[in-house]
Amino acid sequence: MYLTLVLCCLALNACGAAYLIARANLERQRKALFALAAVVSVALKIILASRWSDYDVGSYEVVASLVLHGKSVYANTERYNYAPLWSLFVTGLKQLSAWLPPLGRHAYHIAIAGFLAVVDVALAALLATRYQYNAAVFFLCCPVTIILTGSYSQFDNLALLAGLAAWLLIRKGNATWARVLSSAGLLGLSLAIKHICFLFPIWLIFWSSLGSLRKRIAGAAIAYSLFAASFLPWATDAASRAGIMQHVFLYRSRFYYSLLHLVAGSRHFWLVSGPETRILTLVWIGVLAIAGILAARGKSDLFAMYLLTMVAASPALNDYYLALPILASAIFYPRWPIWSFLASAMVVLFSSPGGVFVLPFSHLYYLSMMSCQVAAGALFVVQMRRMQPAESDSLYAAASARKALTLTMGSYAVLFVLLAVKAWTLGLTTSKWIMPVDGG
Question: How much is the pTM?
Answer without folding.
Answer: 0.92
